[in-house]
Design brief:
By secondary structure, the protein is an alpha+beta fold. Helix content is 16%, strand content 31%. The relative contact order is 0.17.
Length: 243
């Protein structure tokens, strides 16, 4: 069969292509910070770059027959750390947020007891208090939410410094490395048109109770961007490069 460009475009590209700039990072505040989950926009619109994680299968070599080839048999999976880069505000509030978060993991600010001695420094805190969920959302060309990668039991382990220089007038950024226990991927269905003026947001999962808040009605007559949680202005106004 001869090479056919039209067939390649029709069958190979009919599902569209993903843009690396169409994303947002939503960090659910850990319990120890005592921050209302509805006020999580502090870092939401400041995430400049992120890598959607992959995973690695750990294997052992096993020969199933006496003289046959060696098979690699998986026995565990490893999920790599995820680095997120944030644009810094003038008051460095993003850095302060991560600093406070890491202080809830291991206290580095000692207290003073009644005898005037330092106490309580470098004590490890409870895991359930500082773990969090990080949602990496990916949008299509129209700004419709398509996938959500959830980093489960995530927390920062490395907060890099901020490089400052008189000869450089670029935007100040800070990168933070998060570790995670594992991740899940939630697929979102495309918006289905009922007629010219009415749209219904649909989920691809059959178990709606696991992914949709039953207390919230299905939105009819709204754009998909209004039905999702605060899609980033970066997707629609071109704040990020690459659009």
């Amino acid at each position: 069969m001869a090479f056919n460009v039209n067939q390649m475009i029709k069958r190979g590209l009919e599902s569209g292509v993903a843009k690396t700039s169409h994303f947002e990072v939503q960090i659910v505040p850990p319990r120890a910070l005592g921050v209302d989950s509805n006020r999580d926009e502090l870092l939401l619109y400041r995430a400049d770059s992120v890598e959607i994680p992959g995973r690695t299968a750990l294997t052992i070599d096993q020969r199933f027959t006496v003289n046959g080839p060696i098979n690699k048999v998986p026995y565990a999976q490893v999920y790599p750390d995820v680095t997120v880069t944030f644009l810094l505000s003038e008051d460095f509030r993003e850095k302060e947020y991560i600093d406070n978060w890491m202080s809830k993991m291991m206290d580095t600010r000692p207290g003073i007891d009644s005898f005037g001695s330092e106490t309580g420094a470098f004590n490890v805190k409870y895991f359930d208090d500082y773990k969090s969920t990080i949602n990496i959302k990916q949008f299509d060309m129209n700004g419709t939410l398509r996938t959500t990668t959830k980093l489960i039991d995530a927390y920062p382990i490395i907060l890099n410094g901020v490089q400052m220089a008189w000869g450089d007038d670029s935007l100040a950024k800070i990168s933070c490395q998060f570790t995670l226990r594992y991740y899940t991927v939630e697929k979102h269905a495309k918006v289905t048109e009922k007629n010219e003026s009415e749209e219904v947001v649909k989920k691809s999962d059959t178990n709606l109770s696991a992914t949709v808040d039953q207390n919230k009605p299905i939105l009819v007559g709204f754009d998909q961007r209004e039905a999702t949680i605060s899609p980033s202005n970066r997707v629609f106004t071109g704040l990020a490069s690459g659009q």
